[in-house]
Design brief:
By secondary structure, the protein is mainly alpha-helical. Helices cover 73% and strands 0% of the residues. The chain has 2 helices and no strands. The protein has helices at 11-37, 41-58. It is elongated.
């Protein structure tokens, strides 16, 4: 199976991916604070999604 190579994307796709990568950490921190203050099922699921996305960017899976 070939490894995902982000530089094969068109320029607008690379730009969107770059912006998403930079915005993930502030959104993750905001969601963590929100979940600690008002924990609902949706907030916990959303926090898990952002943690998974952040880990995927950090380990360069995406």
């Amino acid at each position: 199976m070939a490894r995902y190579y982000r530089y094969k994307l068109p320029p607008w796709g690379r730009h969107c991916l770059y912006v998403l990568e930079k915005v993930t950490l502030p959104i993750l921190i905001f969601q963590l604070i929100r979940t600690l203050l008002i924990p609902t099922t949706f907030d916990v699921l959303l926090l898990g999604l952002f943690i998974g996305l952040f880990i995927a960017f950090y380990l360069e899976w995406i």
